[in-house]
User: Which sequence fits this backbone?
C-alpha cells in the first residue's frame, strides 16, 4: 500500500534537510508532503535538489500567523494522492523501517501510534554527520546506558514489530510526530480542528474525535520508531485555551472538527 508522509515544518531547514537526506539514503518509496506553517526562509533549492534525486516532494505553505499546525496539516492531507497518511514532525528522524511498519500494520477503522525516542544533543549532532545511521536491537542498549536515549528497549531483532491490543480507546500519549491513519477516516472527522491555535493538544483532540467516531488505536510497540531531535521547549501561551477545547470535545463526545477545510458529509 502506498502512503503519503506528511512532515510538519517551520523554519528549521537543517533538520528538514537531515530528514530528506535520510529518506533518500534509506530509499523510502513514498509521497512526501511538507506542511510548512509559514517559514520565511528560502527552501525551494533544497526541494529541487531532492526532487532531482528521485524524491516525490510537495511543498504546502501558509502565511505565518502564529502556530497553526492544525490548518497546515489539513491542507497537506488535502493534497495527498494516497489512501494512507503518515504524520511526523520536522524534528523527528524516521527509522529505516518506519514507513514499511506503518503501511504493513495499517487496518481500516484503526489509527496507528508508533514509538518516539528522545535523543541527546550529542547524538543529534552525530545524526547530522551520519544521516544513514541505523539504531538496531544491539546498539540501542549501549545508547541508553550512555545517556543518549530515554528508553532501554525500543527495537526488536530483524525489524520485528508488535501491536498492543489493549486500551484501544485510550487517547493519551498519542502524538502526531508518529501517527498514521486512513485518509478517509481522517477526513470523515474533519481532520485537525483548526480552532486550535498555539502549541499543544491539537493532536489529542484529533485522537479523541477519531475514537468518538469509532476509529480506534493500535499501538505499535518496539517498532515504527522516530528519533526526536533535542531542542528547547516551545512557548505554550495558548495551552490553557486548548485544554478547554479538548475537555469540551471529551465531555460532549465531539466527532467532527469545529473548524476545518474539510466539509461535513
Assistant:
Amino acid at each position: 500500500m502506498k502512503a503519503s508522509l506528511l512532515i510538519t515544518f517551520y523554519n528549521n531547514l537543517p533538520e528538514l534537510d537531515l530528514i530528506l537526506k535520510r529518506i533518500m539514503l534509506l530509499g523510502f518509496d513514498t509521497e512526501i508532503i511538507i506542511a510548512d506553517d509559514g517559514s520565511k526562509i528560502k527552501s525551494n533549492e533544497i526541494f529541487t535538489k531532492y526532487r532531482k534525486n528521485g524524491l516525490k516532494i510537495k511543498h504546502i505553505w501558509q502565511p505565518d500567523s502564529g502556530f497553526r499546525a492544525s490548518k497546515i496539516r489539513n491542507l497537506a492531507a488535502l493534497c495527498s494522492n494516497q489512501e494512507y497518511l503518515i504524520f511526523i514532525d520536522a524534528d523527528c528522524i524516521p527509522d529505516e523501517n518506519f514507513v514499511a511498519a506503518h503501511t504493513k500494520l495499517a487496518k481500516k477503522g484503526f489509527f496507528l501510534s508508533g514509538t518516539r525516542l528522545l535523543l541527546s544533543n550529542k547524538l543529534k549532532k552525530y545524526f547530522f554527520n551520519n544521516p544513514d545511521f541505523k539504531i538496531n536491537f544491539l546498539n540501542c542498549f549501549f545508547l541508553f546506558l550512555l545517556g543518549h536515549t530515554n528508553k532501554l528497549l525500543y527495537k526488536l531483532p530483524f525489524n520485528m514489530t508488535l501491536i498492543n491490543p489493549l486500551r484501544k480507546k485510550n487517547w493519551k500519549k498519542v502524538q502526531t510526530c508518529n501517527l498514521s491513519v486512513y485518509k478517509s477516516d481522517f477526513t470523515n472527522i474533519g481532520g485537525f480542528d483548526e480552532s486550535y491555535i498555539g502549541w499543544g493538544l491539537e493532536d489529542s483532540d484529533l485522537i479523541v474525535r477519531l475514537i468518538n467516531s469509532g476509529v480506534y488505536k493500535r499501538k505499535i510497540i518496539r517498532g515504527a520508531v522516530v528519533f526526536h531531535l533535542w531542542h528547547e521547549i516551545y512557548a505554550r501561551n495558548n495551552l490553557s485555551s486548548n485544554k478547554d477545547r479538548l475537555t469540551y470535545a471529551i465531555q460532549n463526545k465531539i466527532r467532527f472538527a469545529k473548524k476545518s477545510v474539510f466539509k461535513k458529509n
Summary: The first strand starts at residue 3 and ends at 9. The domain at 3-135+161-251 is CATH 3.90.550.10 (Spore Coat Polysaccharide Biosynthesis Protein SpsA; Chain A). The CA atoms of residues 222 and 257 lie 32 Å apart. The chain has one domain: 3-135+161-251.
